[in-house]
Design a protein that fits this description.
The chain has about 300 residues and is of the alpha+beta class. Helix content is about 45%, strand content about 15%. The protein has 3 domains: about 120 residues, Alpha-Beta Complex (Sufe protein. Chain: A); about 60 residues, Arc Repressor Mutant, subunit A (Orthogonal Bundle); about 90 residues, 2-Layer Sandwich (GMP Synthetase, Chain A, domain 3). The protein is elongated.
């Protein structure tokens, strides 16, 4: 059973702003009954362009009701620009936290707000339009939606993505594609964090080297290994020595030495620096029996 905070229980048993605003300026609808959650948000502006009133109707669980209630409270009195700054994390934090499995409810509220503001500004349909290519057919979640929750919430696993937008929570056939999207976003994050090399053409700093190694593994090496049921983990970087560990099928592969030199080391030398060489972590290469003995 999930643990709910007292604040969440209060907004569930005593939800604020339930209903629909008369003659609304903006209307937003997200979700569907088929997916188990649906939300309709309406708002009215005052003469100064601030949200005078906001109400909601929702079909969903306690978290869906509570997060919708909180959203309407948070956006009242704000301009549309200020309201757009409210994130799903703001909603969850206001409630003192949400169970991970219910974070998708806070995301749904933020999407309803965006749809309502788009409806006001452009007269677009109040129904949330699907953007991108559908990845999860069970819940109708697109690649753009998945990348967004991964980027904004720092997600790293398929299970976390499922908690935030339901993708991958049905038949599971989309899990591989979700993993690729996670890797893409992680690669973007690493690129943003990597400091530019010195203008005078000097050597990479230790931080630059580690970040570039991790980026190359995420973008150039891991996808190829996963295609054959394997994986790789960066253990450490000591000078020009990169210590890695093979996982999955690669950990038991008889040609792992070839993979390490002709794939891993070659890619790192190409994308980071020709001075690098790769060694496998002693604990991971010792084999299951040796590792069990060491433990």
């Amino acid at each position: 059973m999930w643990e709910y905070t007292d604040k969440l229980k209060d907004h569930f048993f005593n939800p604020r702003n339930v209903g629909e605003v008369d003659d609304p300026d903006g209307v937003g609808e997200v979700g569907s009954l088929a997916c188990g959650d649906a939300l309709r948000l309406t708002f009215k502006l005052d003469e100064n362009g601030r949200i005078k009133d906001a109400k909601f109707k929702t079909f969903g669980c306690a978290s869906a009701i509570a997060t919708s209630s909180v959203l309407t409270e948070l956006i009242k009195g704000k301009t549309l620009e200020e309201a757009m700054q409210v994130t799903n994390r703001d909603i969850a934090e206001y409630l003192g936290g949400l169970p991970e499995q219910k974070m998708h409810c806070s995301v749904m509220g933020r999407e309803a707000l965006e749809a309502a503001i788009a409806n006001y500004r452009g007269g677009d349909t109040a129904k949330h339009e699907i953007e991108g290519n559908i990845v999860c057919t069970c819940f109708g979640v697109t690649d753009i939606e998945i990348e967004r929750v991964v980027r904004e919430n720092g997600l790293t696993t398929v299970e976390q993505v499922t908690n935030y937008c339901k993708a991958g929570g049905g038949c599971g056939g989309c899990r591989g594609e979700i993993e690729k999207l996670i890797e893409r976003v992680q690669g973007e994050r690493v690129r943003e964090q990597v400091p530019p090399p010195p203008r005078h053409g000097g050597r990479l700093t230790t931080i630059q080297k580690i970040q570039l190694v991790q980026q190359t593994i995420n973008e150039q090496i891991r996808p190829a290994l996963r295609a054959h049921g394997g994986n790789i983990e960066l253990i450490d970087v000591e000078g020009n020595k990169v210590i890695i560990a093979f996982r999955g099928m690669c950990a038991q592969c008889k040609v792992s030495e070839y993979t390490m030199k002709d794939v891993v080391e070659a890619k790192l030398r190409e994308f980071v620096t020709p001075e690098l060489y790769v060694e496998e972590d002693a604990d991971s290469s010792a084999g299951p029996e040796a590792q069990e003995h060491q433990a």
